[in-house]
């Protein structure tokens, strides 16, 4: 299975990552990626940048080392109402918004509370994708959330770092259930390395193995094609990115 988009990566700006966006793009080029989503942590995470960092991503070139750069964020789910930690002024500057639970921002609670928060995130319409859902500290009603994601055209990430046990240890079984149920529901999957160092860009082998285990076809994984990925963004109401027109 060929993956051409890494939809979850971090730079020095996140506060606990170790490479620049130029180093990440160079690694992406070397590994054969066509698009790279740069998705640093939003302001509520300790060490994360001010929201101006995200509003100013318009200064980034659309191509670095011949790899298309998608301007993004890993936003934090802050409450059961599904609010994220960016002001409304930020979203017009962003191509790709991941919404994730992080323990320092949203203390693990009950399955019911996690489920309510995720359903509200989806319905609020700001998130394009739900990040690293396999975290065992944030159990939720998988079928209910994935059905809602399908209905509202919100993607579901399979996070390679979670599967590797580098973070969110114990995620593998939950990720497997998410892929199994998501396949049957017809959700749109994406793949994120969650790289915090440039050498981990495009490290997605465990995610692809999980898709293959459950027989998920490439057509259901938007990161297998620039056209699938970019047209998913238009389905989400995002404008066509003129510099990427040949990739649609």
UniProtKB/TrEMBL annotation:
Q: What Pfam families is this protein classified in?
A: PHP (PF02811)
Under Enzyme Commission nomenclature, its number is: 3.1.3.-
Q: Which residues cross the membrane?
A: none
The terms under GO molecular function for this entry are: hydrolase activity
Task: Give the signal sequence positions.
Answer: none
Q: Which cofactor does it need?
A: Zn(2+)
Q: What class of enzyme is it?
A: hydrolase
Which SUPFAM superfamilies does UniProt cross-reference here?
PHP domain-like
> Organism's domain of life?
Bacteria
Write down the HAMAP family for this protein, in alphabetical order: YcdX_phosphat
What InterPro entries would the database entry show?
A: Phosphatase_YcdX_put (IPR023710), PHP_dom (IPR004013), PHP_phosphatase (IPR050243), Pol/His_phosphatase_N (IPR003141), Pol/histidinol_Pase-like (IPR016195)
The gene name on file is: ycdX
Annotated Zn(2+) 2 binding sites? 16, 41, 196
Q: What protein name applies here?
A: Phosphatase YcdX
The Swiss-Prot or TrEMBL record describes its family as follows:
Belongs to the PHP family.
Q: Which residues bind Zn(2+) 3?
A: 74, 102, 132
Keywords assigned: Hydrolase, Metal-binding, Zinc
């Amino acid at each position: 299975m060929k993956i051409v988009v890494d939809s979850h990566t971090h730079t020095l700006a996140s506060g606990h990552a170790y490479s620049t966006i130029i180093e990440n793009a160079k690694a992406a080029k070397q590994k054969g990626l066509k698009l790279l989503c740069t998705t640093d942590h939003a302001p509520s995470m300790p060490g994360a940048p001010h929201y101006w960092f995200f509003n100013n991503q318009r200064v980034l070139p659309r191509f670095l080392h011949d790899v298309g750069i998608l301007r993004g964020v890993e936003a934090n789910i802050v409450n059961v109402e599904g609010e994220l930690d960016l002001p409304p002024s930020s979203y017009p500057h962003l191509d790709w918004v991941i919404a994730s639970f992080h323990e320092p921002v949203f203390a693990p609670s009950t399955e019911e509370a996690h489920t309510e928060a995720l359903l509200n995130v989806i319905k609020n319409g700001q998130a394009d994708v739900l990040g690293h859902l396999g975290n065992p500290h944030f159990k939720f009603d998988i079928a209910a959330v994935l059905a809602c994601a399908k209905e509202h055209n919100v993607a579901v990430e399979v996070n390679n770092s979670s599967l590797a046990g580098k973070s969110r240890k114990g995620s593998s079984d939950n990720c497997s259930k998410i892929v199994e149920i998501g396949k049957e529901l017809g959700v749109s999957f994406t793949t994120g390395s969650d790289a915090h160092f440039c050498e981990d860009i495009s490290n997605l082998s465990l995610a692809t193995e999980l898709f293959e285990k459950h027989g998920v076809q490439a057509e259901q994984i938007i990161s297998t094609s620039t056209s699938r990925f970019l047209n998913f963004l238009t389905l989400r109401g995002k404008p066509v990115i003129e510099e990427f027109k040949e990739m649609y």
